[in-house]
Write a structure and sequence with these properties.
Chain A: InterPro entries: ProX/PRXD1 (IPR040285), YbaK/aa-tRNA-synt-asso_dom_sf (IPR036754), YbaK/aa-tRNA-synth-assoc-dom (IPR007214). Chain A: Belongs to the PRORSD1 family. Chain A: This is YbaK/aminoacyl-tRNA synthetase-associated domain-containing protein. Chain A: Pfam families: tRNA_edit (PF04073). Chain A: It comes from Spirodela intermedia (Intermediate duckweed). The structure holds 2 protein chains of 2 kinds. By secondary structure, chain A is α+β, with helices and mostly antiparallel strands. Chain A has a 5-stranded mixed β-sheet. A 3-stranded antiparallel β-sheet of chain A has the order 1-7-6. In chain A, strands 9-10 form a two-stranded antiparallel ribbon. In chain A, helix 8 packs antiparallel against helix 9. The longest helix of chain A is centred in the C-terminal third of the chain and has 44 residues. Chain B is 45% helix and 13% strand. In chain B, the strands form 3 sheets. Chain B has a 7-stranded mixed β-sheet, with helices on both faces. Chain B has a two-stranded antiparallel sheet with strand order 1-2. In chain B, strand 10 and strand 11 form a beta hairpin. The longest helix of chain B has 24 residues. Among the domains of chain B are: 44 residues, no CATH class; 81 residues, no CATH class; 93 residues, Tyrosyl-Transfer RNA Synthetase (Orthogonal Bundle), CATH 1.10.240.10. Chain B contains 19 helices and 11 strands. By secondary structure, chain B is of the alpha/beta class. Classes of the chains: A alpha+beta, B alpha/beta.
């Protein structure tokens, strides 16, 4: 299992032009111990929890060390019921986040194995110029600001989600759980060493991140397909999702133009208004549709490839 | 690639305007003395012609759609043999596009995207296929990066390129040495490399690229790799039998020199340089993060960079500004809007108001920030949708049955 090393992470941060300061210290397992070495440096210490729910979905909660995190409240806000969240077992730490005890960190999401882990960040981080996290090793602490943390997260295909972790909104029949969109849509399926993976998230924050898993072509022939791969292309070629996005974008843009128009003194014709709408959303819709077309083509390409491989395995010659 | 002697920029007549010297090569663009880049001299130096408005109108007629912003605004301003390409297109013949990138860093900035955005328009407008070359081996040899790192960067850059909105059913990757590996010998691409290499003397490459005896032979043997994709016979799985297919290369004007190597010149369409945030005197560089807007920049980054670093042509005080108006010649936000603001009327309006001093720098920058943020967000989203399987397919040797439709 090849998880990212601290050096690889730091190299990646440098490539992304992320400024960070790093501090070496003896291994620490708790925030208190970490505070002994870096607490005086003026940044905000973080406490990081690795949790799982009853359906074997995983979460990293990264909060200011002073924030009160009530798992019962969070569990309800995520729509998991009252006792739905508990600490994840140690094996999961190794298998999914690929870090050791005492080393949970948002940066662990750089690993493919952590692709379906949901990350909740304390809104309180934004009030600090720099925050302390472990860079995949508990013998070092790095300090970054939230802008750079976001840059890193976006670079690994994540949409940073900042949450007021101390809020206690009512959750009931008429008040849906406010963090429900942060629940992962897939449970992690760990098959040997998965190839690189891209997290697909629509920035208009609709539902839980959709996922795709990469399969190395030469390994596919030798390995049985897993349940995860069935969902592999589903999200990217989901027609319903595509249409929803198109309709939402169009309606939102029409509303904006209509509101603008009603504020303006000079009334414009409907035709003119619609023309502005189509100018505004045209490039975005083209981009969305092209991503869809490409994803569908790739699905077909790989299906064709595998059908040729399968025919080869069965001793049949490939079709001319 | 090239390291042209700066003194030659004076032109055939030998005239020397003051102490200005221009250095233009694929690695460096600078004007000594801090002056502006003289594109007329470059056109003369590289043996091209101006892309005038009648040609732009011809393109519009032939493609039945408005010309791309970059053509309308003169970003792509020079060409070689473009008229021949348009002639053959009008006759019903085909051509294909070839462009590329040396993947030396993961961080792509907007200047890098410009040729790809334009190439996408060309592909859509003329309905022709595109071959993209990611010269991971070139970067390996010139920048001393490891082979693994170059391969990884090539894949990452491929994702950004695909995210520009290319239709993968019309997009093929040109094999580079690193990707060819065991398939190298016996393959048509390599055969053409051998042919081209035999046509170029050592003296010629020294003259074009400025090699010295201390340069390692990897650098010296590389140039044919870049020339060969301009020959359709290098891609038998795409263009088999169609040996007369012409090739059109959209590129920045400093890249055109490499096409001098081939014995059958491809057509070129060339762009001016995308200016750095700090001003017109140079081009964006991946080694100076504040000289450019990166595709990974957040909305906050873009706002910060434009507000703090974008060189303004506005006057020092509001009174002076209202009196004299802004200096549009050096104002970077106006230039960037010239690249990326689609609406011609809005751009004209902004230029008029700003130039007359009625609009302030802050407003212009605000509009630019909006435009850039939208673009970068769209790119990010599209890039997130590019999977490793897509990159695998892009780099696979695969036919494109609908490439001309």
């Amino acid at each position: 299992m090849s998880g990212y090393s601290k050096e690889q992470l730091l190299a990646r941060l440098q490539e992304l032009n992320i400024n960070f300061a790093s501090y070496d210290h003896p291994a620490v397992l708790t925030v208190e111990a970490q505070a002994k070495y870096v607490g005086h440096l003026g940044g905000a210490l973080s406490k990081n929890l690795f949790l799982k729910d009853k359906k074997h979905r995983f979460y990293v909660i990264s909060a200011l060390s002073g924030t009160n995190v009530d798992l019962k409240v969070l569990s309800q806000r995520l729509g998991l019921g009252k006792g739905g969240l508990r600490m994840a077992p140690e094996e999961a730490l190794q298998e999914i986040l690929q870090v050791s005890l005492g080393c949970v960190t948002p940066f662990a999401l750089i690993n493919e194995s952590a692709r379906s882990v949901s990350l909740l960040l304390d809104q309180g981080f934004k009030a600090h110029e720099s925050c302390f996290f472990h860079p995949l090793s508990n013998e070092m602490t790095i300090s970054v600001n939230t802008r750079d943390l976001d840059k890193f997260l976006i670079s690994i295909g994540r949409n940073p989600a900042y949450v007021d972790l101390e809020a206690t909104p009512l959750v009931g029949k008429d008040q849906p759980p406010d963090l429900a969109s942060l629940v992962p849509s897939e449970t992690p399926s760990l098959v040997g060493a998965p190839e690189k993976v891209v997290q697909n998230q629509a920035p208009d924050g609709n539902h839980a991140p959709a996922e795709k898993k990469g399969i190395n072509k030469s390994k596919a022939a030798a390995k049985e397909k897993t349940t995860g791969s069935a969902k592999k292309f589903v999200a990217a070629t989901d027609v319903g999702k595509l249409i929803d996005e198109i309709i939402n974008k169009t309606c939102a843009s029409v509303l904006i133009e209509v509101n603008k128009d009603s504020e303006d003194q000079s009334k414009v014709s409907l035709g003119h208004l619609l023309e502005k709408v189509s100018q505004k959303i045209g490039p975005d819709l083209e981009s969305i549709a092209m991503s869809f077309k490409n994803a569908a083509y790739i699905e077909g390409f790989h299906a064709g490839l595998h059908s040729v491989i399968d025919r080869g395995i069965q001793g049949l010659s490939s079709p001319r | 690639m090239a390291s042209e002697d700066g003194q030659k920029a004076g032109g055939a007549g030998g005239e020397n305007e003051g102490a200005e010297e221009m250095v233009v090569n694929p690695w460096e663009v600078a004007v000594k003395g801090g002056g502006k880049i003289d594109y007329d001299k470059l056109i003369e130096k590289f043996g091209c012609q101006r892309l005038d408005s009648s040609l732009v109108r011809r393109v519009e007629r032939l493609t039945s759609r408005p010309a791309h912003v970059f053509l309308r605004r003169g970003v792509f301003f020079a060409h070689r043999d473009l008229e021949e390409i348009l002639d053959l297109y009008e006759r019903g013949e085909k051509f294909y596009l070839y462009t590329g990138r040396g993947p030396s860093s993961e961080a792509l900035h907007l200047g890098h995207l410009v040729p790809f955005m334009f190439t996408k328009y060309l592909q859509d407008a003329f309905k022709v296929p595109l071959v993209i070359q990611l010269t991971d081996d070139e970067k390996c040899m010139w920048k001393n990066l490891s082979v693994e790192e170059c391969k990884r960067l090539a894949r990452e850059n491929a994702k950004d390129i695909i995210a520009c909105g290319f239709d993968i059913t019309k997009l093929s990757s040109s094999p580079t040495l690193i990707m060819l590996v065991g398939k190298l010998f016996g393959c048509a691409f390599y055969e053409n490399m051998v042919r081209v290499s035999k046509c170029v003397t050592f003296n010629k490459v020294v003259g074009i690229f400025g090699f010295t005896p201390e340069d390692h032979i990897g650098k010296i043997s590389f140039p044919p790799v870049q020339a060969v994709p301009s020959f359709p016979s290098s891609f038998p799985h795409l263009f088999s039998g169609n040996d007369n297919l012409r090739c059109l290369i959209p590129c920045a004007i400093d890249q055109g020199c490499c096409s001098r190597i081939g014995y059958q010149k491809p057509a070129l369409i060339e762009s001016s340089f995308f200016p750095a945030l700090q001003g017109e005197t140079g081009k964006m560089s991946a080694s100076d993060p504040n000289s450019a807007i990166y595709v990974t920049d957040s909305a906050k980054d873009i706002k910060n960079k434009v507000n703090r670093y974008a060189f303004s042509g506005g006057r020092d005080s509001i009174e002076l500004h209202r009196k004299y108006g802004a200096n549009l010649e050096v104002d970077i936000p106006i230039k960037y809007l010239g690249f990326f603001l689609e609406d011609d009327d809005e751009l004209e309006h902004i230029k008029t108001e700003y130039g007359a001093g009625r609009m302030l720098t802050g407003e212009v920058k605000k509009r630019l920030i909006e435009v850039l943020s939208e673009m970068v967000e769209r790119h990010c989203k599209a890039r997130a949708a590019v999977t490793d399987e897509m990159v695998d397919a892009f780099m696979a040797v695969r036919p494109l049955p609908n490439m001309f439709s």
